[in-house]
Amino acid sequence: MADANQNTPAQRAAKILLPLALGLFFLASWEGLVALYDIKPFVLPAPSAIGAALVENWASLMVSAWATLRVTILAFVLALIGGVALAVLFTQSRLLELALFPYAVVLQVTPVVAIAPLILIWVGFDRVETALLILAWIVAFFPILSNTTLGLKSTDPNLRELFQLYGASRWQVLTRLQLPNATPYILAGMKISGGLALIGAVVAEFVAGSGAATGLAWRIVEAGNRLQIPKMFAALLLLSLLGVGIFFLLSWLEHLLLRRWHESAIDQNAR
Amino acid sequence: MGDAQSPLVTIDQAAKTFEGGVTAFENLSLTIDRGSFTSILGPSGCGKSTLLRAIANLTGVTSGSIGWKLEDNGHDSIGFVFQEPTLMPWATLQRNVSLPLELARLPAAAIAPKRDHMLALVDLSGFENAYPRELSGGMKMRASIARALITDPALLLLDEPFAALDEITREKLNDDLLAIWQRQACSVVFVTHSVYESVYLSERIIVLSERPARIVADISIDAPYPRTQEFRLSPQYADYCRQVSQALRSGISI
Ligand SMILES: Nc1ncnc2c1ncn2[C@@H]1O[C@H](COP(=O)(O)OP(=O)(O)OP(=O)(O)O)[C@@H](O)[C@H]1O
Ligand SMILES: [Mg+2]
Questions:
Q1: Tens of pLDDT, residues A66-75
Q2: Using CB atoms, which residue from A156, A166, A183 is nearest to B103?
Q3: Homologous superfamily of A46-270 in CATH?
Q4: Does residue B132 sit at the A interface (CB-CB below 8 Å)?
Q5: Angle A75-A79-A85 (CA atoms, 0-180°, nearest 5)?
Q6: DSSP 3-state helix, strand, coil percentages of chain A (rounded to 5)?
Q7: For residues B163 and A78, what is the distance between their CA atoms, to the nearest angstrom?
Q8: Which of A130, A135, A157, B8 is the S-S candidate for B34 at Cβ 3.0 to 4.6 Å?
């Protein structure tokens, strides 16, 4: 913080090299310990064994990763649209908010694992992907809704009066005042929701189980059942990479959209 | 200034009581002439902002009336400058300044020349694409004034616009405001709690008592414009300041 030139080339390199070196050291120790104590692969596979499993099962793992990612992205996009749309409706009609908000909360506080079997039965096991989508959506939806509602409501009262003074229409107030004001809030909600959509998709897959699902979570269950622990680790690795990827993508989007005006995203070296 | 005594706003026996029972002002009658420069001076919390918002019709009065004598073409509008610059942080300076015209759905081609003229008037040319956070406090205030003036309003309402600025910037902006007022030929109602500022700027000073606000004095400042540093150093200025100060104190019961 106090350091003004945080972004000199050397420091930027250190930012990447330091975690990388630590990671390599960790992997090497892991490899070494597994070899040294002769740990069985079904207890803890060495990184090299995990790598081998990854290469060996590359095609099927990629298919699974794509299946999970597709559900995640779809659920996330629908949560974004639904959350923002509902929040906008809430700010336009107090009545609607009073009527609907409790149900949104109920949806949020009920654990997804608990509703998953019900949704699966309702949607039918022949349409598992739709059920997964609904479950992931339920998990991802609420942060967007509550953050957007907060952002739409927390406009500067003086700016609101200014819009009133110039006879702005409801639409103009929404598009030129409330939505821009809500942008940082929506983006913060998106960062939470992106991760939650993935978690929702994975949890739903676990519950759906029984070979109907084809995503990474099912690969993990399946590999576990067959004691193919290296493959299990490989699937796990891909899953966390997906999560990290989603997070970075959304952080990058946030930075792009807010860097000129919002305190949270202003370049450190521009201060 | 202004063509002899043509009233723009007529406040008649107006009173404002909030739901909680706080009365901001009562039995207040006042006429603001076209082209005049009027300051409203009063102790903190007496109801100045509320009065200004009532004049702009941002809040209603509980009794009495606030009437507008509109021009025949009906083109009278109001510019409002808040105590804070109140700019949209997500919009560039030029988008902020052109907001009133954009809300009126003027075509971009019609907005651009007016906007550039306004920016030049408040000495902000070259900062069109800067965001509010990249500007100093004084620059933001000037942008706020430019935004208020862009509709060419018949009435410009300012609510302690320079209270948060340092003395030098404040004096500079006072001179800028006077220059703009003389060029634009609008009426100005200027709320302040600085005796010196009000005497330097105004043709007329309305002194309010503490809450509920009544008018305790209505003082004309008979000094020619343009006013300069010389006026600030004149005995006449000191006399007026003393007179206004006394009126202000007479409205407080301590
Ligand atoms: N929306 C409101 N609801 C209830 N009371 C209010 C409201 N707005 C203002 N008041 C009250 O009205 C009184 C006058 O407020 P106002 O803001 O007009 O004072 P002011 O003269 O502008 O003060 P200052 O010089 O400190 O800005 C205050 O006592 C305040 O508590
Ligand atoms: Mg005030």
A1: 999 999 999 9
A2: A166
A3: MetI-like (1.10.3720.10)
A4: yes
A5: 150
A6: 85, 0, 15
A7: 48
A8: B8
